[in-house]
Design a protein that fits this description.
The complex is a heterotrimer of chains A (458), B (396) and C (388). With 458 residues, chain A is mainly alpha-helical. Helix content of chain A is 69%, strand content 0%. The C terminus of chain A is likely disordered. Chain C is 46% helix and 6% strand. The chains are: A mainly alpha (458), B mainly alpha (396), C alpha+beta (388).
């Protein structure tokens, strides 16, 4: 296939008119859900309730139900936390960084990715809240002195996490809502149901599509994107600090911040592709979420996968180069020790399989793409598992070495978090526009004036 | 202005540019040679600072070219020739690197046989840190860079005549292969030439740190050249504020990225407080070095950050030019801060010497000369590039 | 039919973005000020066509961002360095690098929230669902795929007829006169609404009461409070005598503790000898301990002249004949065991310190009751002969 580089490819395929775009996006909200929808919902709700039961038992009997042991005091709970926070990075990345880079193809996927961010951060938030087994004590995370007049510890990376994740959630949510305001107004004006109209009116805040508002709105969008970009980097950086400020070999290494961020983007994009493949098929959005978009996302997955591979390689090289024996041991233990199986799952899923995306055919083939992105998700979960568990299970004292196995409750809670995530995603697809109507309209063919050069900065 | 009538007429750069380059280069070289006779160790360390600076500009430019191709960016297509000219520094490195290899004994502690014999850690590193392998690596990396430079730039220039779109496709492929090669080679170059000056110290983020500075330096050099050419009318009338904005925004982004990486490295070492890591920062926080460290934060981050923060300031040619020159100086300071404290006599504190000033002069002259030489044989705009028109019509 | 209503403005819709840009330019250059363009998405170049100045929203962001950074740093400075300073990981109280993450997060939080808040409330004056443009055919079309322009009646140049003609001359698809809606009163004090408020307040306060006063005392939330361990003042269910703290087995000796076998009014003179010579250091130690523990009763110079003098019983002087004749062991015994109302100091003063005090008491006694020989010795040392 020959590409004509002198023309920019169309963002919206199929030469849709503005009305058709609106019709396509609003359709899921105008129609009653079918049987398939309820089947999907019940599956995810089942997973959610399994997680809820496991969590309830954990609260009742305590965290002794989990597999954590000495020396593996941090295990699947933090693994799940980092995994979900990582997935939550793609949304803001797509909506903020690609916006600043003026990548128009982001419009088709931004809304969905942002929603996934919010849901993923909600899933992530569960784990720090429950990992002590006493979630009703979480109020002590706020900077409010306890009965001894003692404040929270601002030099602790775990507290930075509290601030980072809650700020990230708030800002992502605001960003998402600001993007939704014009769409709420459009929905308000096209619906005939009185109840829907009232709801949409409330959420649209009485938006009038006024150009005097659009001016500020676009400015605000730039500003928010400008803040969200460093924010998204800071969140996973701070998550990496949880590990890296310690002096445990395998955790303490300076490349952790950018390495975690690259990994987060990698896993987040993989999750977005996983879900979008279904959404575009089910809701007939192939013209708005085109194969070109998926291909571009696959390219990003390839690039970030190689960044992650670079970090693995650097860690190994410097572990040897440093001449610190405990450091060297941890890395040999990772690759050849009792958790070698996890390590090689991680390497093959994160570094080797994405290499198939060098081929254009594979980048554009839905079934192969599906397999690879799911493997990437698996690999990224195992990456956090490897980092956490293999650095701990053989610590400085050989007498206390122990093998860690997660229990059924650990895995049940993980399943529950997937249940929560997909329940929210499924509910979202039917209740809100999964694609930004106003943004996609703005990049459709013929949506912008033909000659506007030179007038802008008159 | 209309969007269709763009005709390129080759306009030579003034001969005064080459003359200026020669004068600066000759003056700088004479002073530098003098420095070698006064204090050989200090001179070779300073030579390394300027050498790394030139690597930054050349390699960063080639990286930006590759990035433009694989990202499919169009705004930078009309000015792509500027990084192409700067990237010509890469083959020149084959000559420039020779003094470093000849005087490796003055630079590298691990090159001392007697030091390695008493040092278990250095013995452990000997399979990597030994003179033979070092020289092999150096030439392989410079060879690879020159090869990619040659192939990509050849395709780009050929396109001026043939207007063949397959050449763009070829360069996209080359770019995609080049980026991983670039990532590894720049990392190991940074480790070899700078990190191994203190052979007991290690940091996994080091390659990324140098990369961040590299992009800042090359963007700054490109911005200066673009603005100078725009002033002289080479890019009129099509160049708009939006092109400048893109350059400014990229610089702004990479200043932040540099600060982020620098902070991450410092933070983790400071917090963990392991003696095998902290000593590197302690050297830079004692004697006169503490002032240079603080100056580096201000010069490399705070000043350019606030200078480029607002949208209009990223488009203002005057401010952009000032900040671009400022950033080149900042990167030079960064290299100086990385390299000089490793010199034996400087570990206890910084003492000023005129030797520190002369090498960048020679470097500046060389960069101007190479730029003028490269520009002589090529069009200043890639007239055959299919993305050119989109780039010229680029609008935010 | 709407003639009794007040006109808000006249609206026109257009089909293409080119037309609306053109129309906006014409309206702007015709001198209208109170007009607005409504488009389903931002149309490029419209700001220039309408001559709208760049948004000033960035200033809000800048100011609030800086405020966020300053507040965060101040907060952490107060909490970690002023109110409850604590050494954590050997870092300084004001550990700036460790405070940067939270500073950054709060900067972003405050900047973004206030930007969005200011945009919606101050710049847009939203929420406003009562605006005249709502629920008009015009609004419905510009919400979809048309591009609209309204010239408002508040404009000085407004005139129903001329504006309509002007808009028609711009090739508008159609024009529409927009009226202000009838004022609808929203009686806040409707019984239903009041009931609603009451219900909400009952639920919220009841729920809070339940959570804080009942729920946390239920299983398993009380497990941290009610643990299977003995707390002070609680009887033990395990032991018959109800005591949780058991007396150790006879002859048990705590680690590092040397038992003192003498009790009561005994005189262990023969077996207890001072193991320390009265060196300068030892006497200095004794003096320090004497000033801490003994002076409150016996006085600075052991005259029994402390502020307790005059109470019953009077603290005794240590310069009495009886006290001077005590052996070292006897004084040590009294400090260790106490005598009369004087309590035991065994738990406060270590053994070595007690012996040092004994030495110091001897110094005081000899100083106050010096013999002639002592004075001669002293003068010899001082090199004078005053006493002769």
């Amino acid at each position: 296939m020959n590409v004509d580089y002198s023309q920019e490819g169309p963002v919206v395929a199929g030469r849709l008119t503005l009305a058709q775009i609106e019709e396509l996006v609003a359709k899921p909200m105008d129609t009653k859900p079918d049987k398939k929808y309820f089947i999907a919902l019940s599956i995810s709700l089942t997973a959610l309730s399994i997680g809820a039961i496991c969590l309830g038992l954990t609260f009742f009997y305590g965290v002794g139900l989990w597999g954590n042991n000495q020396p593996v005091g941090w295990a699947v709970d933090i693994v799940n936390f980092v995994f979900w926070v990582g997935i939550g990075h793609a949304g803001t990345l797509i909506s903020a960084i690609l916006f600043l880079l003026r990548q128009k193809w982001r419009t088709g996927i931004a809304r969905f990715a942002e929603a996934m961010t919010i849901f993923a951060v909600m899933c992530a938030g569960i784990f720090p809240a429950v990992h002590t087994g006493r979630p009703w004590m979480d109020g002590y995370l706020f900077p409010y002195p306890n009965q001894h007049g003692l404040w929270v510890n601002f030099t602790s990376p775990l507290l930075w996490d509290v601030f980072a994740v809650s700020t990230y959630f708030t800002v992502s949510f605001v960003f998402w809502y600001v993007g939704l305001i014009p769409d709420f107004a459009t929905l308000r004006d096209r619906t005939s149901s009185k109840i829907k109209k009232t709801i949409y009116s409330v959420f649209s805040l009485g938006w009038r599509h006024s150009n005097r508002h659009w001016t500020h709105y676009e400015k605000a969008y730039v500003l928010l994107a400008g803040f969200a970009t460093p924010l998204v980097l800071s969140v996973h950086t701070i998550v990496s600090f949880d590990f890296a400020v310690s002096i445990i070999p395998g955790w303490h290494t300076t490349i952790f911040p950018p390495y975690f961020v690259a990994g987060a983007i990698f896993s987040g994009f993989a999750m977005v592709v996983t879900v979008l493949v279904f959404v575009r098929k089910i809701f007939d959005l192939q013209h708005i979420i085109t194969l070109d978009h998926l291909e571009k996302m696959n390219k990003v997955i390839l690039a970030t996968g190689m960044m992650v591979g670079y970090a693995y390689a650097m860690e190994f090289f410097i572990a040897w180069y440093s001449g610190v024996s405990s450091e060297t041991f941890v890395f040999i233990n990772r690759a050849l020790g009792p958790y070698a199986w996890a390590y090689w799952i991680m390497v093959s899923c994160n570094v080797i399989f994405p290499q198939f995306f060098w081929f254009k055919k594979i980048r554009r083939s839905i079934p192969i793409m599906m397999v690879i992105v799911i493997l990437v998700n698996v690999g990224m979960w195992f990456e956090r598992f490897v980092i956490t568990v293999t650095s701990l299970n053989r610590d400085f004292l050989p007498s206390s070495w122990a093998y860690y196995t997660p229990t059924i409750f650990d895995l049940g809670i993980l399943l529950g978090s997937f249940g929560l995530f997909f329940t929210l995603v499924i509910l979202f697809t039917k209740s809100l526009p999964v694609v930004s109507i106003s943004e996609v309209k703005a990049v459709a063919d013929g949506a912008q004036p033909t000659h506007h050069r030179g007038e802008h900065h008159a | 202005m209309s969007q269709t009538d763009f005709h390129y007429q080759k306009k030579e750069l003034p001969a005064s540019l080459s003359r200026l380059g020669i004068i600066i280069f000759v003056v700088g070289t004479v002073l530098s040679l003098l420095a070698f006779f006064v204090d050989q160790e200090r001179a070779i360390f300073n030579y390394l600072v300027t050498y790394m600076m030139i690597v930054s500009i050349g390699l960063g430019s080639l990286f930006l070219i590759g990035l433009e191709y694989i990202a499919g960016a169009d705004w930078s297509t009309p000015i792509r020739r500027i990084p192409e000219f700067f990237a010509m520094l890469l083959p020149v490195l084959l000559v420039l690197v020779i003094p470093l290899l000849v005087f490796n004994h003055d630079l590298f502690h691990w090159a001392h046989k007697e030091a390695v014999a008493d040092d278990k850690i250095l013995q452990g590193k000997a399979p990597y840190l030994n003179v033979t392998f070092f020289i092999v690596r150096t030439f392989v990396f410079i060879g690879l860079w020159s090869l990619f430079y040659w192939m990509m730039v050849r395709n780009s220039r050929k396109q001026d005549e043939t207007k063949d779109q397959t050449l763009t496709k070829k360069n996209i492929r080359l770019g995609a292969i080049f980026i991983p090669v670039f990532a590894l080679s720049i990392t190991f170059t940074a480790i070899d030439f700078m990190m191994s000056l203190e052979p007991h110290w290690f940091s996994t983020i080091y390659g990324v740190y140098y990369f961040a500075g590299t992009v800042v330096a090359s963007l700054a050099a490109i911005t200066i050249a673009v603005l100078k050419l725009k002033e002289k009318g080479y890019f009129s009338p099509w160049m708009t504020d939006d092109h400048l904005f893109s350059l400014g925004a990229l610089m702004f982004a990479f200043i932040n990225f540099w600060a982020y990486i620098a902070f991450s490295q410092f933070m983790l070492i400071w917090y963990a407080d392991l003696p095998e890591e902290t000593f590197w920062y302690l050297i830079r926080w004692e004697g006169g070095w503490v002032f240079i460290s603080i100056l580096l934060m201000i010069v490399h981050f705070f000043v350019p950050y606030f200078a480029l923060l607002t949208q209009p300031s990223k488009m203002n040619p005057k401010r952009l030019k000032f900040i671009a020159i400022w950033l080149l100086f900042a990167h030079l300071l960064d290299m100086f801060w990385l390299i000089m404290p490793n010199m034996g006599s400087m570990k206890n504190g910084y003492v000023f010497s005129w030797i520190d000033l002369v090498f960048p002069i020679a470097g500046t002259g060389l960069v101007i000369l190479v730029f003028a030489f490269a520009a002589k044989k090529a069009n200043l705009i890639p007239i055959g590039d299919p993305k050119l028109k989109r780039g010229i019509d680029f609008h935010l | 039919m709407h003639n009794d209503k007040k006109i808000y403005g006249i609206a026109a819709t257009f089909k293409t973005p080119d037309e609306i840009i053109n129309a906006a330019k014409k309206v702007s250059s015709a001198g209208y000020i109170q007009y607005d363009v409504n488009t389903p998405y931002p149309v490029h170049g419209m700001d220039a066509a309408m001559k709208i100045k760049p948004s000033k929203l960035g200033f809000v962001t800048l100011v609030m961002g800086l405020a966020g950074a300053a507040l965060a740093l101040l907060m952490m400075y107060y909490m970690m360095s002023v109110d409850y300073p604590m050494v954590i990981g050997g870092k300084p109280f004001f550990a700036l690098p460790a405070f940067i993450p939270v500073t950054f997060e709060l900067t972003v939080l405050l900047a973004t929230l206030s930007t969005v808040g200011a945009m919606i409330a101050l710049f847009f004056r939203l929420p406003d669902n009562q605006h005249p443009l709502h629920d008009t055919a015009y609004m419905k079309s510009v919400s979809g795929d048309k591009f609209g322009l309204v010239i408002e009646a508040s404009d000085v140049k407004f005139d129903e007829k001329s504006v309509t003609d002007f808009l028609k001359s711009l090739h508008a698809l159609n024009t529409e006169i927009i009226y202000y809606p009838e004022e609808v009163a929203y009686p806040i004090f409707q019984p239903k609404f009041i009931m609603f408020l009451i219900a909400i307040s009952v639920v919220v306060s009841g729920g809070t009461y339940f959570m804080l006063n009942k729920l946390v005392y239920m299983t398993p939330f009380n497990w941290m409070m009610d643990q299977d361990k003995l707390t002070p003042q609680k009887p033990s269910e395990l032991f018959a005598d109800g005591r949780g703290m058991r007396t150790p087995v006879e002859g048990t000796v705590a680690q590092g503790f040397i038992p003192y076998p003498y009790k009561g009014q005994t005189n262990p003179t023969e077996v207890l000898a001072n193991p320390f010579l009265p060196t300068k250091e030892n006497i200095a130690l004794g003096k320090a301990k004497y000033f801490t523990y003994c002076t409150p009763c016996h006085g600075d110079f052991a005259d029994g002249d402390s502020r307790l003098r005059g109470q019953f019983p009077n603290p005794p002087t240590l310069h009495s004949k009886r006290a001077r004749d005590f052996s070292d062991g006897m004084i040590y015994h009294i400090i260790t065991n106490g005598q009369n109302v004087m309590p035991s100091y065994a738990s406060q003063i270590t053994r070595d310190e007690r012996w040092a005090i004994v030495n110091y008491v001897r110094v005081l006694q000899r100083a106050k009751n010096a013999s002639d020989a002592d004075l001669i010795d002293m003068n010899k040392e001082a090199g004078s002969n005053v006493a002769n």
